[in-house]
Structures are given as C-alpha cells and as structure tokens.
Amino acid sequence: MTAMIDISRAEKTFTMHLQGGIELPVVSGVTFQVEPGECVVLSGPSGAGKSSILKMIFGNYRCDGGRIGIRHQGALVDLASAEPRQILSVRRATIGYVSQFLRAVPRVATIDVVAEPLISNGMARPEAQERAGQLLRRLNIPERLWALPPSTFSGGEQQRVNIARGFISDLPILLLDEPTASLDAANRAVVVELIDQKKRADVAMVAIVHDDEIRHLIADRIVDVTSFASAA
Amino acid sequence: MADNNAAVQDNDQPLLMAEGLGKTYGRLSACRDVSFALYPGEVLAIVGESGSGKSTLLQLLSAQLAPSAGKVSYRMRDGVMRDLAALGEAERRFLFRTDWGYVHQDPVLGLRMAVSAGANVGERLMAVGWNHYGRIRDTATSWLERVEIDIERIDDAPRTYSGGMRQRLQIARNLVTEPRLVFMDEPTGGLDVSVQARLLDLMRNLVSELGLAAIVVTHDLAVARLLSHRVMVMKGGRVIETGLTDQVLDDPREPYTQLLVSSILPA
After folding, report:
1. pTM of the model
2. How much is the ipTM here?
3. Is A81 touching B (CB cutoff 8 A)?
C-alpha cells in the first residue's frame, strides 16, 4: 500500500447531552484513500460533514467506528484508536492542518506565529523566521505588520497568516479547510501556486473549497461526501 | 545515533505515574481512583470546578499530601521508578529543591517577600550547592530577563512588585534549577486579563524551550487550551473524561464536559 491516508468505514455521531441527549449522526462508512502528490477535494452541501471528516483525519474529532490509517514515519497508524501521544507525534511529523480561522495566541508576533511549526521541529529561530518572511511576502503581508500579533488584522490577512503557518512545514500530509474563502483573486492565485508546489513535493492533500474555479484548478479527484451521509 | 535512540527510548518511559490514587477525609472522598501516566515534555491540564478534587489531586501528585489509596511513582534521574511514599528525606528534598517546581496561585506562598528578587532566585541555587556569588547573581539576572523583569529591579523585594511581576518572579525561582517537572496551581488566577495573556505566552515558550513536563490545575479552559497537550476533566473527585486537549474541548463526550465547554463566554 502506498497511500498516505487510508480511511475505511469511519463514522461519527454527536450526542448532545445538553439537548436531552439528541443523537446527531454526521457521517458513516467514510472510505477513501489519498496517494502522495494527490489533492482530493471533498464536495457536498454545507452540513454534509466535510469539515468533520477533515477534523477526524487530524485527530481533532474522535471517531466512533472504522479506521483512519495514516502513513507516519514509515508505519501505518490508526488515528481512530491512537493514544494522545501518538496523535501529537503524527501532527508534529506528518499532518499539517490549515483551519478556516486563525486561533491567535495573544501577544505573539506574526512572524513567530508562522515560524513556530519549524522552531518546534528543531530549526534555529533566525532560519525559521527567514522562511516565514519569504512566505509572508509571497502572500502579500507587508513587512511592517510582521512584528505585530495577527489578532488585530483583517479577516483576509489573518487567513493568509494561517496559510503561511500551515504551508511552511515540509509535512507529507496537508489538510485544507477553505483556504481561499476570504481572499482576493491575486492571493487566491498564490494559494493555488503553493498547493501546486506541494503536489510536486509529493504531499498528499485533502481540501474543502467552495469556489468552483479553485476546485477545478487544484482537484485531482473529487470525493462526494453526500454518499457518506448517515442514515438518520 | 545509538545515543539518540537511547534518548528517544527514555522519552517513551513515563516520568510520573498515578495508580488508583485516592484521598478520603473521614467519610468524605475528595478524590478517587485516579490513574494516568505523564511523559517527559508533556503538559497535562486538570480542569474542573471548585470542589471537583483537582487541588487535592495536585497535592497528592506532588507528595504534599499522603494518599488514602493507590500510589504515585516518579522516575528519578537515575532512571529508576520510585514510589513517592517510600522516598527518604534526602530524596524528597532533592525533588522539592531541584527536580520539581511548584508554582502557587498566590505568589506570596512561593516567594520570600522581604528579600530581594535576585535572592529569591539565587536561594534555590544555593540550596543545591552553588556558592560562587558572581555566578549566582549572573544566573539570577539572566532568569529575570527571561521572565521579562527589568534587571534594574533585581535588588528590590517582591513586595514592591505588581501581581504579574510577582508571578513571573515565582516562575523564574522555580525554573532556575532546571527541574524536569513543574506543578502549577491556577497560575493565572487572580491576575488581570492582559497580564494573564503575557504570563501564558511566557509559560508556553519556557515549557517548550526547556522541554518541561508540567501538571497544571486550572478552572479556565482557555488556559488549558493554550498550555496543555492533554486534559483530564474532574467532577466530584473522579476523572470523568480525558484525552488530547483540542479533542476534549472541540468534541466533548461527557455531559459535564459539554456543559463546561458550552459555558465559556465568547470574547
């Protein structure tokens, strides 16, 4: 097996205890693979469970059944049953995640927010900042903003900081949750370029994009999430 | 390479282990049946409301209170796992003075308020045998800088410091001996929000730079999210849910955890 991600019959249900224990089935029977260098785009209407699937692949949402196989440092790890320490190790070395919104840490400068994944993987600060700067410049974040914490930035600027943070590492798997949602055309084009570059570096990607044009540009394959709808 | 592998294996061994830990006061059970393993470099948050037993648990884990049931073991620097209850006085002293840090919610409990800031930091070094005044002062100075205290203030006593400065000084005093494990009891409680943010950011950086393991008791889920890798939710003296911090906070399973998470006021 060469797939980086191999999901089989994964399922997720939310139980809302504060609403009288209502069960909200989200997805079931989720089965697909992603090969190195391939970008799979999840499609389906809002509420179909696209983001939930992405969060399950990142180990952020727990999986109620099935298997989420991730190729991590040469071995296959099942995130559905992995220990917290294993999930953290997978996130450090294998899976990156670009969420829709930046969860900004107060007081940390933009350049350090972007450089942090490299520093925590052992790169020296000056080198990591140098690479962070290149990426920020490419995403049109002016240098005068780099020393400021991103919490005061506009939505589009925050998203670009988030993208820079997500793309800076050389991880073999990247999950993208609407990476272009609040960007203008020029910055959307930069993101498409970055995704292309990752493909050439054999990175396996799973993305959610609502913009048809972008989807057409980045998708190697489309997986329709409505087929995984839970029979409620 | 061989050395490298040895280090990795070392990190695969727990630093501290709790097994069936419990504490009763007469018929009242403050905390019961707590078991977990903490690994080197791992930050564990214990969350829950007042009265949930989280402070009792922290005291049991840090050998300040004797358990009524179960045991806590700790891997000493020689690699041997030892039952805390069976340690001799010298070994206990070694843990408290060197290998462990303990950050109190109220810095007054963790500092000597009438002696200078420099002496507060230097004292921990002298307790482990440092005796060269110049080196002690240099090390104290560099630690004050690391916790962002103006070194002009090194000779002032902490009673002249603000709450935030006192807390940062307490952290410097604890970390100067390069402990492997730090216990923190509501480290940001009682501070203004802006001061909290600065302290959290500082602690987050120090913990990751020094590769410290930490056990943080907090009722503030935002503190748990920012600082910890793993979280244990306590209610009525028991651990009711545990897991990766973002997993427990974003996808809480237990009714009580769902209540806690949904009770956070949006900023």
Report:
1. 0.90
2. 0.89
3. no
